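hey so i finally got around to running both of the ones u sent me last week. sorry it took forever, my laptop kept dying halfway thru and i had to restart like 3 times lol. anyway pasting them below in the order u listed, first the sequence line then the structure token line for each. didnt double check formatting much so if smth looks off just lmk and ill redo it

first one:
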Amino acid sequence: MDITQFEDIRPYSDSELPGAIAALMEDEAFVSLLAKYVPDMDFGSVERLLDGVSCTTDFQLKFMFPVLKRVINGLCTELTVSGHENMRTPSLYMSNHRDIVIDPSFLCMTLVDNGLDTCEIGIGDNLLSTPWVRSLVRINKCFIVKRGLTTRETVRAFAQLSSYIRYAVTEKRTSLWIAQREGRAKDADDRTQDSIVKMFALSGSGSLAESLAPLNITPVSISYEYDPCDYLKAVELQQRRDNPAFRKGKDDDMRSMQTGILGYKGRVHYAYTPCINAALPRIVQEHHGDRKGQIRAVCELCDRQIFAAYRIYPVNIVAYGLLSGDRRFSSRCTAGELRTAADYLDSRLAKVDIGDRDDEFLRRKLLEMYANPLINKLSVAGDI
């Protein structure tokens, strides 16, 4: 395989690290941001630390993880993991999506804690608005997903991305993380996009099962007790409703990224579910001759595994009760937990700051964000 075709989307190689890190440390915007959010880490200690970095995993373990832990200290009360037996290298970890920085960062931490290497991370180029951000993510094992393209450009970009993913898993023997859809589900109704699975298969050959099996697709279910960006998502949903032509600007993306990192998340749970390989032959057989039906069935399988593994918190139960009128699960929580969850939802609505705010619409969207994980879990598990 000609790996030069991946030059504009691949992470930096170990040999490129010294130059990339040196350029990053000379970027005033990056240094200023580091000083603002990690004030206890002085510039001299950062330089000495990075002098000893020899590979991308080193950079993550010595720099990114300590910085991230400093930033999120107190913003996450616990990080728990289940499904350890489903962690293996190499895998293509595909998860539901809440935050582009925290989702894969926590995933990498859980892999390292279980004796595995960190994984490469798929990130949309819409979030790489400044040179230092683009450089930082490529140092940090990120591969780039091109967005906002014409139809013809999208076809080429998908083919390139599919080939890179296959190369990384089957030849580099490294694990990767990618979200199950383009962008976050604003209402937390997490559904795998057909186009994502279709993209995975583009670079393969034979049946869909033969094409996908070498990638070892492993769905990961991520549950945040609180989503720091919930009120921002509600605002965006109203803006899109009121103006179908509305598009977020670069500043909006950066604000969401910052809020997602620095906002309170409460409890967070990662559930690694089984690799889908065992089910692929059955899916191909059941939808014989119907490639579109096979792809849809693969998406639905991934969704069922993610839904069943959700961790449900009191805020999900309260939102579900307020939205549906069904309060059968309230007895699973203490009176204090129910009150705290209800107060939290009210406080998020109070943070909305836009003209012509539609409180009824905004409240319903906030409730949907927290109720949908429970609704989807019930659809496959029947209980919580």
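and the second one:
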Amino acid sequence: MAMVGVITAIHAEANCIVSRKLPFNQMVHLGDGAAIWVCGMGDSAARQAAEGLLEGGVTALVSFGVAGALDARLRSGDLVLPESIHVSGEMLPVTESWRNQLKQLLPLDLTVVSGILTASKGVVSTETAKRELANVTGACAVDMESGAIAEVATNAGIPFIAIRAITDPIKFSPPTALLSAVYPDGSVNAMRLMGLILQRSVGVGTLMRLGRGMRAASNTLSAVVRHLDGNDLGNISRALNLNSPYQLPTKN
């Protein structure tokens, strides 16, 4: 039986799929033919999750979560369904037929963009760095996990897609200092965050803007889940893979 494995970096992304808090860094079965893994931020964590899901029997992989904009036209809450992933100087394709099936299920009032999603080893924290990355890669958006997941899927010869909602537009990025107050699963060290605020390393206005961007992205990801015929991952799996006419592709 087909089984889709969905990888999210943080709990806030996973909460767009299932409301209960999931265990960190392990495979969790949800519904028929689906599993999820909350892996933590970064390519190493994502690779470990993808390989763990393969060992657990998944037959397709989804990178699900948020991304930063590299295109000035993108706004917080826009949805990126990339046609390819730029990673380590290579272009890895997504499974086009699967991506197109998903897109057909989405509401028309949702802003959906295609193009290239590029991988980054770390947070891209300035507009200048974002524009340089866009020039080098041709990408419209960036995240830290999709590249590793795409590589695992490509090497395994299984279907792969990325579903990414924009949090920060090109002219605004999370400050690097903030990462020291964030745990791998996305939860916040309140004492460390307060220290950064008192030191003026991170401003309250910046935090509020980050919060608005994350809410916009989360609302979009939740809307994707709702319009895939359900509010849990099992229903997503059935809508995409197990119900006619939507069948899980085996090749690009």
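quick thing i noticed on the 2nd:
Residues 116 and 138 are 7 Å apart (CA to CA).
anyway thats it, ttyl
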